[in-house]
Amino acid sequence: MRGAVVRYGSGAQGGRDAAVTTAVDGVDLDVAGGEVLALLGPSGCGKSSLLRAIAGLEPLSAGSVAWGEEPLTAVPTHRRGFGLMFQDGQLFPHRDVGRNVAYGLRGTRWGAPRPVRDERVTAMLELVGLAGYERRAVTTLSGGQAQRVALARSLAPSPRLLLLDEPLSSLDRRLREDLVGELGAVLRTAGTTALYVTHDHDEAFTVADRVGVMLEGRLVRVAKPDALRAAPATPEVAAFLGLPRAGSEPHRTTSDGGSRVTGSRHPGSARLRPRA
Ligand SMILES: Nc1ncnc2c1ncn2[C@@H]1O[C@H](COP(=O)(O)OP(=O)(O)OP(=O)(O)O)[C@@H](O)[C@H]1O
To answer: How many domains does the chain have?
Structure first.
């Protein structure tokens, strides 16, 4: 993603207007194949808008999205090959667990014949710790189980990028703490490249290979968890993370007002890079 800008309100597509909110303000973001990258920031900083723009659910006012060399800015959501998982897993209440998971398989190599589909559903439910739940009604599931099913459904078609927007935030803290480690392990077992939006520090630091901190529409710093703790880059990031200011690294703002991160461990990564 290059120079991404998302504006809401009248004149959002270009004009200047007092009613316009700039939710995402010149963000460059690279995700390396197979990594889990958390987007962390306070409420209203633009995380969901950025994720939705990558998914194609929100139009970019400026900038571009690509997968490797493949431009995606004008490609509709369902053709991007990305998976989505939201806070409320949005399961179909009238379908059982197995048919919810199978829903994501339509049109993929696991969509038919039926034995192939069933085998994939079984494998996905095993992956998320719900082996044997195929015939369960989704209305009988706990919140945590429902989110596991939603994860299985998102992973089933093997998306090249999985976009998760606060996937655990509807659960209570204890369950969230239990599930976040498991979720990270599932993503790694499946070899999934993922962008994980959260406002919760612990969740981000537990689940992610790298954490990107967003503040007021800007991606201020992207680093491995340890590096971020050791060098939060700006006083604002340090304050948001509750860290002392010491150890800050230089951070520069580009001439176009966009935010670039120095010291990235993925200096050459080309946009959303497919897994090697
Ligand atoms: N559909 C919309 N129309 C107008 N403004 C919007 C819309 N969606 C988001 N915004 C505004 O854009 C800014 C960023 O919102 P966004 O939801 O992306 O942030 P967030 O970091 O995901 O916050 P939260 O964690 O609370 O969802 C906020 O000021 C918000 O009010």
So the answer is: 1
